Amino acid sequence: MILDLIKATILGAVEGFTEFLPVSSTGHLLLIGRFLGFESKGKTFEVLVQLGAILAILIVYARRIMELIAGLPRDPAARRFVACVLAAFLPAAIVGAFAHSFIKSVLFDPMIVCTALIAGGLVLLAVDEMKFETKYSDVMDFTFPMCLKIGLAQCLAMIPGVSRSGATIVGAMALGADKRAAAEFSFWLAMPTMAGAFSYDLYKNYKILEFHDVVTIGVGFVAAFFAALVVVRGFLAFVSRRGFRPFAWWRIGVGSVGFVGLLLTR
């Protein structure tokens, strides 16, 4: 039991540190969990532990969320932005609901994760060299069709290793957002997306969870919360200043080491 809690703490911290970075938190959890010998029933830990990261971003964005809610009755811009975020969330909600079993039974595979990590790293290296036309530097100016397209890009992250934040950030930049605005919209989109994934997975799997599983998830949740707080507060400034190259090389390194480790432990 103690060993499982230690593993849950490590994995929770990994989730929190990687959830909002373009490196794929699920991919890291699956790989590290494999090498730690950590198994969760129905792969629920990897999804439910995201609650900690959700709470972290809600706290960091609490003032802006309250201002947005307060402005809904009288501010058309606030209503339009909420509609845009929900439009971006819709594709993932539909695909996730219909493909939930396939994703967990087929795509939650370490070899697929390593391949996606390396491929995504190469994409980020290419993106960092591209000069996209910048039309938007404020998320409140994003258009409804643009947000829907960003939501379609987010669906690529159904493949573990792709990265939800990476897909949405690259999608937003390709559609005219600057790096900071793209990363910020990824934060906003994370709220309904992660909350939806958490709720749906809990609904599908709560019957198989036992007390031990709940305690393990709870420990991972706490670790994810504190780790995510650190990342959310500093990520926007880092991306604006340094770009995506550090994350690209990190992905390639982790994917390559993962391949070697999987081959050696077969």
Would you kindly provide a written description of the structure presented here, covering whatever features stand out?
It is a single chain. With 266 residues, the chain is mainly alpha-helical. The protein has one domain. 78% of the residues lie in helices and 0% in strands. It contains 12 helices and no strands. The protein has helices spanning 2-18, 25-36, 45-48, 50-60, 62-71, 76-107, 110-129, 144-154, 164-174, 179-205, 211-242, 245-264. The two termini are 26 Å apart. The relative contact order is 0.21.
Helix coverage percent: over 70%
Number of distinct beta strands: 0
Helix tally equals 12
Radius of gyration: 18 Å
Query: How many structural domains are formed by the residues?
Result: 1
Give the gist of this structure.
With 266 residues, this protein is an all-alpha fold. It is 78% helix and 0% strand. It contains twelve helices and no strands.
Strand and helix layout:
Blueprint: H1 2-18, H2 25-36, H3 45-48, H4 50-60, H5 62-71, H6 76-107, H7 110-129, H8 144-154, H9 164-174, H10 179-205, H11 211-242, H12 245-264
Q: How would you describe this structure in keywords?
A:
12 helices, globular, 266 residues, mainly alpha
